[in-house]
């Protein structure tokens, strides 16, 4: 099964780990709007696309389990990657107080290879080849992007919105994010990412920082067209809990409405949520209707690491495997049953 996973940061890392239980042919398409930390510094100094989320995606594929054992009922790693040392090194941040302080080694490798090859996709492909990584990592766009948001609650009049620019600023704003845009407003899509979406058997979007890692994927016009036109099965994974700053106070239903407001032409087959985040009853009925905005069916399952608002990759892989095999009886939610 050819799988393409869209997202960024820790959410995409978890998704890639889950998808690697199911297939060796996994492609990550990663947002490129980060302007903080090491990524922001390298972006400002060198003009490269921010490497941090790309590095995390490479690390996820480098350290992920092998594909699902078809003889088992659930995800069983066929053998761990032999890259533990390099995975740790790739993620290692320099200490001290000098110019290198805070930079992960992987960020520097990506930035250096991008300068040498003159192409971020070529740089990523070279690292995949050097480390013998199954799968591929691609940027959403080959140019660095900026996020701009309309935020309310920062003025005495709650009806007034202020324009906040920059991913870090948007993520940490104390107000309520109403809408986000990418700058430039019509960014060039990565051709290889478009082809990955079009040729996939399964496309997965989310979870992740909703306004900075998930919604940006539908704000690149060519990529939204590819998502609309692909024959792949499309699954949307909603966050387990609101994220402080970006989605404080958001219900699961609100996450769906906000995404739909940014891309009302987007259609998906499955909306997947954790059972604990939406108790059965009226709230779940509303969520069923919200999923129908995308033409999707709602699926609910036990997806979280116990005691944490983090998706468990093995649980996610098991659910996705059952959905793809048509075993929906345990997870499909019907309004008349709620």
UniProtKB/TrEMBL annotation:
Provide the primary localization.
Answer: cytoplasm
Tell me the superkingdom of the source.
Bacteria
Q: Name one Pfam family in it.
A: CofD
What are the subcellular locations of this protein? Cytoplasm
Keywords of the record, alphabetical order, are: Cytoplasm
Segments spanning the bilayer are: none
Q: Provide the family line.
A: Belongs to the gluconeogenesis factor family.
**Role description:** Required for morphogenesis under gluconeogenic growth conditions.
By its UniProt entry, which NCBIfam families does this protein fall under? CofD_related (TIGR01826)
| Designated name of the protein | Putative gluconeogenesis factor
């Amino acid at each position: 099964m050819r799988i393409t996973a869209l997202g960024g940061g820790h959410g995409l890392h978890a998704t890639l780990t889950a998808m690697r239980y199911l297939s060796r042919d996994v492609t990550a398409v990663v947002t490129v709007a980060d302007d903080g930390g090491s990524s922001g510094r390298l972006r400002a100094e060198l003009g490269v696309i921010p490497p941090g989320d790309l590095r995390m995606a490479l690390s996820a594929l480098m350290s992920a389990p092998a594909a699902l054992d078809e003889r088992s009922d659930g995800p069983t790693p066929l053998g761990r990657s032999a890259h533990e040392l390099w995975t740790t090194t790739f993620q290692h941040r320099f200490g001290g107080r000098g110019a290198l302080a805070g930079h992960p080694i992987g960020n520097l490798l990506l930035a250096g290879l991008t300068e040498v090859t003159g192409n971020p996709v070529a740089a990523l492909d070279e690292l995949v080849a050097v480390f013998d990584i199954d799968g591929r990592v691609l940027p959403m766009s080959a140019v660095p992007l900026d996020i701009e948001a309309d935020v309310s609650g920062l003025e005495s009049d709650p009806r007034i919105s202020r324009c906040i620019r920059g991913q870090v600023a948007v993520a940490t704003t104390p107000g309520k994010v109403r809408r986000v845009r990418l700058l430039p407003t019509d960014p060039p899509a990565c051709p290889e990412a478009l082809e990955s979406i079009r040729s996939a058997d399964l496309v997965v979007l989310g979870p992740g920082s909703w306004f900075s890692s998930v919604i940006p994927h539908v704000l690149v016009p060519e990529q939204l067209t590819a998502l609309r036109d692909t024959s792949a099965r499309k699954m949307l994974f909603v966050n387990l809990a609101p994220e402080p700053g970006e989605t404080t106070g958001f219900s699961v239903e609100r996450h769906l409405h906000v995404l739909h407001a940014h891309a009302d032409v987007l259609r998906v087959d499955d909306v997947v949520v954790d059972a604990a985040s939406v108790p059965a009853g009226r709230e779940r009925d509303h969520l069923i209707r919200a999923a129908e905005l995308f033409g999707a069916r709602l699926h609910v399952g036990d997806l979280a690491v116990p005691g944490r608002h983090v998706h468990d990759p093995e649980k996610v892989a098991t659910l996705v495997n059952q959905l793809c095999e048509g075993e929906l009886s345990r997870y499909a939610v019907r309004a008349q049953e709620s």
